[in-house]
Each structure stands twice: as structure tokens, then as C-alpha cells.
């Protein structure tokens, strides 16, 4: 989920946080059911969720298993950059195969998660598209062998 710096801040009161927690438990939970828990009408919950989505605080999506959808290869790619990090992060974010980009401190400047149909697809992505981005000086690829845990239910503060 890309964070937009130019979006106005969405206030997160206790009710908004409770709505987020309800959706983290079950993204298909009805607005009426959420309203009963948080003490709002269905319409009020709908409006709050819309503001949270439009404000970039959250998104409600179907989380899938790429292997079940025909994508045989997932990997995390560590990227070392020369020069400004943001343009490289933006260029990587524009690639269809990329689903996660973070600017980091440590051995790598960026971490990029990719989902590909095959080893050949991954090789093409890395060799011809990622490494050709201006500023990319090195990459290291960590192939996923087995997904042991993936969660989005860490709650709110």
C-alpha cells in the first residue's frame, strides 16, 4: 500500500481504530455487524471506512496465495542504489510483478517483493528490467521456498 505524502491526515479516534481491527479480523464483515460492535449505524461505518480508504490509512483486499494462482516464483530482492532512493523506489513500484517496496537502512537500500510466473520470468525481470533502472548498482535475490506465516492483523495503536 503506497503512502501518499500529500494526503491530508485522517484522524484515528478509538472508533476508527475499532473499525480497522474488525476488518483486520474479517475483511468481509458487514458494516452492520461492525456498527453493532463499535456503536455506530451501518451508514456511519460505511462513511468512516470510505474516509480511511481514501486517506490511505487502509485498503480492503483479497489476500491470495500466488502459488494457487499460477505464479510459481516469489522472491524478496535486496537492492543497492547509488544516488537518491525515491526515484528508484518509484520505478520499481511501477513494475507489475512488484507487490512490496520499502526503503530500508542496512545492507540494502530497498527491499522489493516480486511475484513471477516462472524462473525464466524472474530472470527476465531482474536482468532486463530491475537492473536497468538508473541508480540500481546491485541486487540480491532471496527465493521463497515455503511461506510459513503471513498476517495483517497486528492491530492499531
Automatic annotation (TrEMBL):
The keyword DNA-binding applies. Coiled coil: none annotated. Keywords: DNA-binding, Transcription, Transcription regulation. InterPro entries: AsnC-type_HTH_dom, Dimeric_a/b-barrel, PF0864-like_C, Tscrpt_reg_AsnC-like, Tscrpt_reg_HTH_AsnC-type_CS, WH-like_DNA-bd_sf, WH_DNA-bd_sf. Pfam families: AsnC_trans_reg_3 (PF22482), HTH_AsnC-type (PF13404). SUPFAM superfamilies: Dimeric alpha+beta barrel, Winged helix' DNA-binding domain. Residues 12-72 form the HTH asnC-type domain. This is Lrp/AsnC family transcriptional regulator. The lineage of its organism: Bacteria, Bacillati, Actinomycetota, Actinomycetes, Propionibacteriales.
Amino acid at each position: 500500500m503506497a503512502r501518499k505524502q500529500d494526503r491530508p491526515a485522517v484522524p484515528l479516534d478509538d472508533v476508527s481504530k475499532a473499525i480497522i481491527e474488525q476488518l483486520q479480523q474479517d475483511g468481509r464483515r458487514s458494516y452492520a455487524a461492525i456498527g453493532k460492535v463499535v456503536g455506530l449505524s451501518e451508514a456511519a461505518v460505511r462513511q468512516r471506512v470510505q474516509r480511511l480508504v481514501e486517506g490511505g490509512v487502509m485498503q480492503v483486499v483479497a489476500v491470495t496465495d500466488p502459488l494457487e494462482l499460477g505464479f510459481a516464483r516469489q522472491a524478496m530482492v535486496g537492492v543497492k542504489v547509488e544516488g537518491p532512493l525515491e526515484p528508484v523506489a518509484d520505478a520499481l513500484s511501477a513494475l507489475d510483478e512488484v507487490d512490496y517496496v520499502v526503503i530500508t537502512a542496512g545492507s540494502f537500500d530497498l527491499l522489493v517483493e516480486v511475484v513471477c510466473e516462472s524462473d525464466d520470468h524472474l530472470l527476465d525481470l531482474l536482468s532486463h528490467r530491475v537492473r536497468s533502472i538508473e541508480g540500481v548498482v546491485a541486487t540480491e535475490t532471496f527465493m521463497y521456498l515455503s511461506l510459513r506465516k503471513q498476517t495483517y492483523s497486528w492491530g492499531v495503536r
